[in-house]
Design a protein that fits this description.
This protein has helices at residues 49-65, 128-138, 142-159, 176-180, 191-219, and strands at 13-17, 36-43, 69-75, 96-102, 117-120, 123-127. By secondary structure, it is an alpha/beta fold. The protein has one domain: Collagenase (Catalytic Domain) (3-Layer(aba) Sandwich), CATH 3.40.390.10. Strands 1-3-2-4-6-5 form a six-stranded mixed β-sheet. Helix 1 (49-65) crosses helix 3 and helix 2 (128-138) packs across helix 3 (142-159). It starts with 12 loop residues before the first strand and ends with a helix.
């Protein structure tokens, strides 16, 4: 799960999942609410809605246990009428991240046949071909790979240039045992990573609110 890539097209339906078993929020959020980030998923691989929804639930649960809430916006690149999906028209930014599900990666320096994901700036990409290969290799369903892959790449976007870790979901490669133990939390962020992500998202939320205040005042 390397880092690199750019580009984007946007579109379609909002889906929100509340996290479970949230850890204590130490980010300085005065309301005591978990920090929230918006993520737009662009389904270039035409993954079925059932698989995509299950993957988003799994990713939201992983990030929710780290104390970060996710609001999903599902955008269909095949649709050309962007006016019906205002959430998909917005620019990417600190509180609006993007995830592209691609059929596969092209020829890119540093990318191998085993690369499942890329992340840079506010945009992450996942190879669905690689997702299906790993699902077949370890005898699991595609959503059981896609969900953690999305959470992993969002982790890269929020943790910056930390790269991979020796344990947890941010490891570079996963094993059969990770999928066997997934219900018991094999795919999870470390306590340090979770705290850093909560602080990062809380900072981004505060910056967005501060930027919105002058605009609101100007309309009065």
């Amino acid at each position: 799960m390397n880092q690199s890539f750019k580009g984007f097209v946007l579109l379609a339906a909002l889906l929100t999942f509340a996290p479970q078993a949230l850890p204590e929020d130490r980010s300085g959020n005065p309301a005591g609410l978990p920090p929230r980030i918006n993520v737009r998923v662009h389904n270039y691989a035409q993954v079925s809605s059932e698989i995509l929804t299950q993957a988003e639930v799994a990713a939201a649960e992983i990030l929710g246990k780290a104390g970060v809430q996710i609001t999903w916006t599902n955008c269909d690149p095949a649709r050309r009428d962007l006016g019906d999906a205002p959430g998909c028209n917005q620019f990417l930014g600190p509180t609006n991240l993007g995830v592209r599900i691609l059929p596969q990666f092209g020829v890119i320096p540093g990318i191998t046949k085993r690369t499942m994901g890329l992340a840079v700036g506010e945009l992450a990409s996942v190879s669905f071909r690689r997702v299906k290969e790993e699902a077949a290799e370890f005898g699991v369903q595609p959503y059981e790979v896609l969900g953690p892959a999305i959470a992993h790449e969002i982790g890269h976007l929020l943790l910056g240039s930390q790269g991979h870790s020796p344990t947890g979901i941010m490891r570079a490669r996963w094993r059969r045992e990770d999928y066997e133990h997934a219900p018991r939390g094999a795919f999870k962020f470390t306590a340090q990573q979770a705290e850093q992500m909560r602080a990062e998202v809380s900072t981004r939320n505060r910056m967005q609110q501060a930027e919105a205040l002058p605009e609101t005042a100007a309309r009065k």
